[in-house]
Amino acid sequence: MRVDYHAGEARFIYHGNDGTNMPWNDTAQLNYLLPEVREAVIQTILHVARNFPIIRFDAAMTLAKKHFQRLWFPEPGSGGAIPSRAEHGLTWREFNEAFPVEFWREVVDRVAAEAPDTLLLAEAFWLMEGYFVRTLGMHRVYNSAFMNMLRDEDNAKYRSVMKNTLEFDPEILKRFVNFMNNPDERTAVEQFGKGDKYFGICVLMATLPGLPMFGHGQVEGFAEKYGMEYRRAYWDEQVDGYLVERHEREIFPLLHRRQIFAEARDFLLYDFYAPEGHVNEDVFAYSNRAGDACGLVLYHNKFADCRGWIRASAACAVKEEDGGKVLRQRALGEGLNLSGDADCYVVFRDSIRGLEFIRNSREVCERGLFFELGAYEYCVFLDFREVRDDASRRYATLCSYLNGRGVPGIEEAIREVFLQPVHGPYKELVNAGMFRYLLDARGEEPNLAALDEAELKMVNILRAVKEFTGGSGDETVVAREVSADLEALLRRPAAGLLQDEARWSVLFGWLFTHALGRMVDTPDPAGASRAWIDEWLLGRILAGAFIELGQDEGAAWWSVGIVKILTSHQRWSAGAPGEPLNAFNLLTRLLSDADARNFLRVNRHQDALWFNNEAFDELLNWLLAIELLQNGPDSMLCVLPAIEVLRQAKETSGYQVEQLLEATEKALAT
């Protein structure tokens, strides 16, 4: 005896040992065959279960009692789903006698006892997903409600489904297989498009408990509906590169963090309260945890703007020791595992936009979080951490300063706030507007008003550095020297190295930066100035000015690199203490500087270090430019021989660093 299941006809065929072949749904034999057929079917399933770790039941809802009767044995007078079956109708009492136990309940129990390591996955449409996991105990079920309700923006109804599930047993959420298309439905891009709504639903699919399922061709943006009988695609479709890239940027990183979202024990669903007091059912807001790692997700599934608060969760069933359960709500602070300490601040990152946010821990616990969301806007907050403020109140100051805004990095933002006494006056001098003003002031008789303004602003920045560091330098003397160099620069004709405005702006940036270290008591003021470009984030201000003057971001940071090198080697012609200026000493100092090596593009290939020819020439020209600017034309007689030795050594080096050093040393020996 064997039993075959015909999915297309949604029926089993009984093949008896006596050679009979009879459909299970034959009314005349239903009572007689049912026990034997059921056992044969279950034995077939158990045989498969012992050989495979997963079984998928196609169209499983057709064998649930109410639908089996509706399809094959409709109650008299109901008409039934298939008119031709009306003559085989049974009353509910008659049908229940013939079909006393839900078939799938028996299957699940038998598999649990006899093949416990096999996972049972059911296709259960017609809004039977909850019934299959709650009552019948199926391990996993395809969640068509997810696709249909979110597509149609029936948000209140789907949130009600989630709430009902949480009140019954949150663990059931883990059994849903959420999807946006399947072989029986229109493709995901046809149903959801390719914009923010599609990606918002995708975020929900990737961050809800359960199993996210992507359809074939979904990520690539294919619109052809692939039936299960397809052997190949029939449409000539091209991969949508933008859609793939956006998946890689926004969705795939969330799938790599599935451990935060996959479980249901700490899953909390929140109501989104509008300022008017009502719940906005169009916003899905929930949190989840895995150990100390937390995630908070918000998605607005409506073409509209909204604003509001999340504070407390919907009621969830909590099992007690005696086997009973109680409904419990939890505050947002508890869901995010916050201390609620007034001196603590919670820092978290939006993985979609890459921005970090900071809020006071006690305020989050007592008031919740406020959000403004646009049409189909979504946020996924991760990497929650609490930091305790100290006597300086740095985090409190930053939290107040940002007032809810996000920044690339909280710790870096704290540095910016801390550095405002220096950044303020530095930005007054180092900005695109000031640089353009100075460019317009060039000539044999420079604009004295521009020079006076630059000197006054230089005094301000030097005084700010002096107060910030507790130094003792004389800001008026240093500012006067910088102003004299600036005047000499503005008198020079726009030729040679200074043939374009980008190079002029680099020299302006260097002039207003290289002398800052003279405000502190240090034997190496140039080193202090160079260090502050990074430590005080002055490089970012320089890059911003260069970008506003027309450079792209890469070129702007390349220009910042030049300012760093010239700042470190601003007195290169004087040589190092205890050694004379010569080409070899200059070269070794440059090659020991990481900024200079980066500028020269020093790289290792086939066991040799190489450098860039053009970059080497340009670096020598920059060194000559600041020498001419600081010491005038007469100094050229002293430094040009060393520069010329380096140029000649470069020509014979084959652009290898080792050979460049050897050629330079050999030239000095002769």
CA-atom Rg in angstroms: 37 Å
Query: Overall 3D geometry?
Result: elongated
What is the percentage of strand-forming residues? Answer: 15-25%
Oligomeric composition of the shown chains: single chain
Helical segment tally?
28
Give the number of DSSP strands.
20
Q: Would you identify the regions where 5 or more consecutive residues have pLDDT less than 50?
A: 5-10, 25-33
| Separation of the first and last Cα atoms | 103 Å
Task: Please give the share of residues in helix.
Answer: 40-55%
* Average pLDDT score: 89
Largest β-sheet summary = 8 strands, antiparallel
- Structural class of the helix and strand makeup? alpha+beta
Sheet with the most strands: spatial strand order: 16-15-18-11-10-9-12-17
| Domains (count) | 4
Write the layout of secondary structure elements.
Elements lengths: L1 E5 L4 E5 L5 E3 L6 H20 L4 E4 L7 H8 L19 H7 L4 H12 L4 E4 L6 H6 L5 E4 H8 L3 H14 L7 E4 L8 H5 L3 H12 L3 E3 L27 H15 L2 H4 L6 E6 L9 E8 L2 E8 L5 E8 L2 E4 L5 E4 L3 H4 L8 E7 L4 E6 H7 L1 E5 L4 E11 L5 H9 L7 H9 L1 H10 L2 H9 L7 H22 L5 H17 L9 H11 L13 H11 L2 H11 L4 H16 L14 H9 L2 H6 L3 E3 L2 E3 L2 H19 L4 H18 L3 H13 L1
Parallel strand pairs: 4-5, 5-6, 6-7, 7-8
Antiparallel strand pairs: 1-2, 2-3, 9-10, 9-12, 10-11, 11-18, 12-17, 13-14, 15-16, 15-18, 19-20
Helix pairs in contact: 1-4, 9-10, 14-15, 16-18, 18-19, 20-23, 21-23, 22-23, 24-27, 24-28, 26-27, 27-28
